[in-house]
Amino acid sequence: MTDEVKETFATASGGRRAAGGGSAPPAPPAPAALAAKVRTLAPSMTRSMQRVAEAVAGDPAGCAALTVTGLAELTGTSEATVVRTARLLGYPGYRDLRLALAGLAAQQQSGRAPAITTDIAVDDPIADVVAKLAYDEQQTLADTAAGLDTVQLGAAVAALAAARRTDVYGIGASNLVAQDLTQKMLRIGLIAHAPGDPHLAVTNAVQLRAGDVAVAITHSGSTGDVIEPLRVAFERGATTIAVTGRPDSSVTQYADHVLTTSTARESELRPAAMSSRTSQLLVVDCLFVGVAQRIYESAAPALAASYEALAHRHGALRADRGR
């Protein structure tokens, strides 16, 4: 093994997200999550790392039989690139990746149906559109669930449950998800805001301090109007959370906890915002339910009170329909 590869094996990732001290690193993803990881992370990889990732996802059985040198030769890359790719996919080293590849190959050989192509054509019948969208949504949710770091999720839930107040930042479709999270939190008696105006988001962030939480929702991880308020909140001492499809993107440098989402492959009639919204909503629901569990004694009465406050409106609507 070359010195460069040894160094890559020995080097651990740093940053404020590792500030928890001696906490154990997250467990490597299960074999079933490998393909999801590749789909999620490949767009942010270098081209050489993409070749390695695409190779292992496309032929897990063949790659599982290769040494690190063999896979480097197959993909026209270096041993260090292979090891870096393994680490980015969540494995401590190439040996762990090979074990996952062998497990994935065994699952595929057991008769599981291969993934189908779901590109929507402009002349597709509406029934086909429904079937293809349903498949993509299911795949996106499965990939997000498989790749979600439950240690990071648990830490984010704990911070939200104890927060004095929470700000949630998102632009465009991500702002709809931000509003969904804040509305849920308000229903269980927590103080939460989702400013849609970028200037208001920054002025809100200035008021945050230790004990508060700021959540940034951005699929690309590079949306300036989301990164700026998160940076301000980070610098003010608030606990920061990033929900993003790019775990190595700019937004994560200001995040204490990173929750990675997945998306289906983009097409002309299915932009990234559609599937990213689906995966973001899953993460938001996980956060909300986790928080509600932690503060159940106060959350349950708050939910009951909100239902009761709105009951007469629903009753009036039913009465109007009956006339």
TrEMBL record:
Keywords: DNA-binding, Transcription, Transcription regulation. Pfam families: HTH_6 (PF01418), SIS (PF01380). It comes from Streptomyces tendae. Residues 156-297 form the SIS domain. One of its GO terms (molecular function) is carbohydrate derivative binding. This is MurR/RpiR family transcriptional regulator. Residues 32-108 form the HTH rpiR-type domain. PANTHER family: GLUCOKINASE, HTH-TYPE TRANSCRIPTIONAL REGULATOR HEXR-RELATED. One of its GO terms (biological process) is carbohydrate derivative metabolic process. Residues 1-31 are annotated as: Disordered. InterPro entries: Homeodomain-like_sf (IPR009057), HTH_RpiR (IPR000281), RpiR-like (IPR047640), RpiR-like_SIS (IPR035472), SIS_dom (IPR001347), SIS_dom_sf (IPR046348), WH-like_DNA-bd_sf (IPR036388).
